[in-house]
Specification:
4 domains, 20% strand, 30 strands, nine-stranded mixed β-sheet, 736 residues, Rossmann fold, alpha/beta, 26 helices
């Protein structure tokens, strides 16, 4: 039976020690709730850190922990104190967390912490690999495990991997600051499906992938090593039914049984008939706590009629108190609250009620129900579920949500009062608007938001992600080409060995080498050169490299082999055993003088592009420019050139190039010329781009044609990328 494995930094339970034994307590966070049904149904396992370090547990307690977790279908990844310090408190929360939330001034990058981050991700990969088999499905969560998808892929290629990021993904201009940006993106590229809360985060991620990894993106599909990586938006919800049902239950409680918090709220109203404004956050500089206090102070200054009629109920849940930025934030928060209360308090009224502690679920419901206004104004937040929880408790749809436009929830809850959290004047005005809002308008705003979070709750979120992940796992690409795997390799090598005369026609860029931002640095590897040497030394082989490259490049790197060199798509040929290049006789090259100025103008106006002038071709390269700009300008250039060219030239759209070449010669005609020289009983033609399709269509149907990559093709076979083909070429060269 196929297994689903959930992987997160922390397991959804807390392990605590008492004097006699270990206590295992389930947690009730959003992730634990959302994945509960996934974990409980079928053959599922959850892998993560249990929360206690190796130093805190004796060998016997480690065994006890593992045994107890196994019974619950959990598996522990045990970390020592140094790993927690460097991996979690260090790189995860001192580098990735602030950067992804746009607090680049708080970023601290330490090489030792990065090494710990790598090591822990590898440790998680080993734990996963020990539990999964080909065909299983894995769902990895959050910023602590950004390297994990690719690490798993390397160990077990034939699994389906999903990844969800619970925090924002920053814009390219912010993300590029991270020293290990390429490693992070390559780690994520091991996934089959990557999910984000909002389209903005998805867009930022795709933009970084295009600019840093230079991968091809088609809508929401990223092409990576012959695989499609799907990127999509999955806004996380809450357990709406739970919040609503408990809220209803609280309405049935007799006043004599009220909680202390609820009694305190009732006393406030009895004395002042005023309103309560809720602010509840974990202690974090991303939450906008100081900005909110400043805005409330400004509100009291500008609207004195609300003195003794409004209280700010400020709840701050302790978090990461050992981190210096959080210590400083706690100190400033205490000072700011003290200043406001010192300035405005009266005998009967304290403007800010301050709670520095966590609340249990029942008290949390009382907080939500007891406050007329909620100020949810983080400076940056992946989603923010507090906003949704507040609305879920409002059974009569009365109440006002003030929501930061920089929180992911703002993309869904657009009927809230949206505000820029950095604009304290606007925030104070918005608070005034909230307190003056009629009940009719409150209901009108809140009803559609409540319906949204009711319909798309935490269970719908997890189901949608898992369903899409399963669809990817079950789908097989519908194509006529055959993927070259072990069976196909064996068959092709057998055909090669049994043949007496063989013709091998090989493209260069994208086939014998991967692409490079600087195409002059895309050089043949030792592996390729060794394979070509062995193949060319076999008298039964006729090897030809057919490339768009100029003759001097091919001469420099391959001129010492006994092979044919065909440059500029067939316009220039150097036959094996000869040192002379032969040029095809073309009718005219007058078209170059008309096309070149246009291409040059585009190169001048598009930084990072250039024009390559060949004997019988012009190529506009845009691999080094901004990817999105390159796409726009390439379409513009193609439109202009299409109106200019005649039948004597051909316009080709290649991989980050636009090429205009003479119509009289192409790779297909060059390949056929090689084929017609002898009676070959094994013919192999390989290429990756549109220019190679002529070879596949011009040569006889018996030809073994191989497409490198995932683009549409007329070839019979396909391999993932140049690395895969070079490996196959090496096998051919050693077959005899």
């Amino acid at each position: 039976m196929k297994k689903i494995v959930i992987v997160s930094n922390r397991l959804p339970l807390k392990v605590e020690k008492n004097e006699q034994s270990l206590v295992f307590t389930p947690t009730s966070g959003g992730l634990a709730t959302g994945l509960k049904s996934v974990h409980q149904n079928g053959n599922a396992l959850w892998i993560g850190w249990p929360g206690l370090t190796k130093e805190e547990l004796s060998p016997a307690q480690l065994k006890e922990t593992d045994a107890a977790l196994s019974e619950l279908r959990f598996k522990a990844v045990h970390l020592d104190q140094a790993q927690v310090e460097d991996f979690y408190l260090g790189l995860s929360n001192k580098s990735i967390w602030p950067l992804f939330h746009y607090f680049k001034q708080n970023v601290v990058f330490d090489q030792q912490q990065w090494q710990a981050y790598q090591q822990v991700n590898k440790q998680f990969a080993e734990a996963v690999a020990a539990e999964v088999s080909p065909g299983d499905t894995i769902w990895v969560h959050d910023y602590q495990l950004l390297l994990l998808p690719d690490l798993i892929r390397q160990k077990i290629p034939d699994v389906t991997i999903g990844f969800f990021l619970h925090i924002p993904f920053p814009s390219y201009e912010i993300f590029r600051i991270f020293p290990k940006r390429q490693e992070i993106l390559r780690g994520l590229m091991g996934a089959d499906l990557i999910g984000f809360h909002t389209y903005d985060y998805q867009r930022h991620f795709v933009s970084s992938v295009k600019r840093i990894l230079h991968l091809e993106v088609n809508f929401n599909a990223i092409m990576n090593k012959g695989r499609e990586v799907i990127v999509n938006t999955f806004p996380m919800g809450i357990d709406f039914e739970k919040f609503e049902s408990v809220s209803k239950a609280h309405d049935e409680i007799h006043p004599s049984d009220f909680s202390e918090l609820r009694k305190q709220f009732a006393s406030h109203r009895a004395q002042t008939d005023g309103k309560l404004v809720l602010s509840i956050d974990r202690l974090d500089y991303t939450k906008g706590i100081l900005n909110r206090i400043e805005a409330f102070e400004l509100f009291l200054e500008r609207y004195p009629e609300f003195h003794e009629k409004v209280r700010l109920v400020m709840v701050i849940v302790p978090s990461r108190s050992e981190v210096s930025h959080y210590k400083a934030l706690k100190k400033k928060t205490d000072e700011s609250i003290g200043r406001v209360n010192g300035l405005y308090s009266t005998v009967n009224w304290t403007p800010i009620w301050y709670y520095y502690r966590s609340f249990d679920f029942e008290d949390l419901i009382d907080l939500y129900k007891g406050c007329e206004v909620a100020m949810v104004t983080p400076l940056r937040d992946g989603m923010n579920l507090v906003a949704k929880e507040f609305l879920a408790t409002k059974l009569d749809a009365k109440g006002v949500l003030i929501l930061s436009e920089l929180a992911g929830a703002s993309k869904e809850l657009h009927h809230a009062l949206l505000v820029n959290p950095f604009d304290t004047y606007a925030l104070s005005d918005t608070l005034y608007e909230a307190l003056k809002m009629s009940e009719e308008e409150q209901v009108e705003r809140n009803q559609p938001m409540r319906e949204r979070i009711r319909r798309y709750d935490i269970h719908a979120w997890s189901k949608r992600f898992i369903d899409e992940l399963y669809q990817i796992a079950e789908s097989e690409p519908e194509e006529q080409t055959i993927r070259i795997r072990a069976k196909e390799k064996e068959q092709l090598i057998s055909s090669y060995k049994s043949a007496t005369r063989r013709l091998l026609l090989l493209d260069y860029d994208g086939t014998l080498t991967g692409f490079h931002v600087n195409h002059q640095k895309a050089l043949p590897s030792d592996e390729v050169l060794d394979a070509l040497e062995r193949l060319s030394q076999d008298s039964s082989n006729h090897v030809a490299i057919i490339s768009g490259r100029p003759p001097d490049f091919l001469e420099k790197h391959f001129g010492h082999f006994e092979i044919d060199l065909i440059a500029e798509h067939g316009h220039l040929t150097r036959e094996k055993g000869s040192s002379a290049w032969k040029e095809k006789n073309l009718s005219s090259d007058d078209w170059i003088s008309h096309i070149l100025p246009v291409m040059q103008q585009f190169a001048d106006n598009t930084p990072g592009t250039f024009v390559e002038i060949k004997k019988n071709a012009l190529v506009w390269h845009y691999r080094k420019t901004d990817p999105e700009l390159g796409i726009v300008k390439s379409e513009e250039l193609k439109t202009i050139l299409a109106s200019m060219i005649s039948n004597e030239v051909h316009l080709m759209n290649g991989d980050k190039i636009i090429e205009v070449v003479s119509s009289s010669v192409n790779k297909g005609t060059a390949a056929v010329e090689r084929y017609n020289t002898e009676a070959f009983d094994f013919v192999l033609a390989v290429g990756d781009d549109v220019t190679d399709e002529d070879m596949f269509t011009y040569l006889p149907a018996s030809t073994v044609t191989i497409k490198v990559g995932n683009k549409p093709t007329a070839a019979h076979y396909r391999v993932a990328d140049s690395t895969a083909f070079i490996e196959f070429l090496g096998l051919l060269s050693r077959a005899l």
